[in-house]
Amino acid sequence: MATTKWTIDPTHSEIGFKVKHMMFTNVSGKFGTYDATITTENDNFENATIEFSADIDSIDTNNTDRDNHLKSGDFFDADNYPKLTFKASTFTKNGNDYELTGDLKLRDITKSVKFPVEFSGLLTDPWGNTKVGLNIEGKINRKDWGLNWNSALETGGVLVGEEVKLNIDLQFVKL
Predict the structure, then answer these.
(1) Which residue numbers delimit the Lipid/polyisoprenoid-binding YceI-like domain (predicted)?
(2) Under 8 Å CB-to-CB from 63, ≥6 apart: which residues?
(3) Closest CA to 42 of 89, 87, 6, 84
């Protein structure tokens, strides 16, 4: 069976996240530099091979001091671990959409994660390129990957929430 390769379209993709700050508001951020590929059997996405990586130095929360803190040893330790990576173990159809399971590696820790995926189906853009869109929303606990830094608040609670909400919009183009 023939395989089909898909590559990410970075101008139409976003790797976003949100974390609670001071227990009541969200800080949003994104990664600006990343790469992803999908390999499918023909145009069938079930059991696709999916690989993703993001450069930690490209983290952007709209605040340089906070970004530098996130890159430091308190969080991602970008000097020693310059990339986060994800490699799918399964991509299975669930109704009209999919469920994605795989290994997420942050710092030197790899953990299995599972996320629902909204699947757009195959579309052709005005220039004749075949594209597919995936929207992934999910949650992880940053402490599962050793991102433990925090600061207690005088009023109780902590400065940075443990739960990280992911909102990832990916558009791929068929090669």
Answers:
(1) 5-173
(2) none
(3) 6
Range of the domain at 169: 3-174
- Chain segment 82-131, per-residue pLDDT in tens: 999 999 999 999 888 899 999 999 999 999 999 999 998 899 999 999 99
Non-local (6+) Cβ contacts of 14 within 8 A are: 30, 167, 168, 169
Taking 50 as the pLDDT cut, the residues of the chain under it are none
Q: How many domains does the chain have?
A: 1
Q: Kindly tell me the burial class for residue 95, based on how many C-beta atoms sit within 10 Å of its own C-beta (0-12, 13-18, 19 or more).
A: exposed
Q: Which two tokens stand for residue 3?
A: 């395989």
Q: What is the CATH number of the domain that holds 14?
A: 2.40.128.110
Please state the pTM of the whole predicted model.
0.90
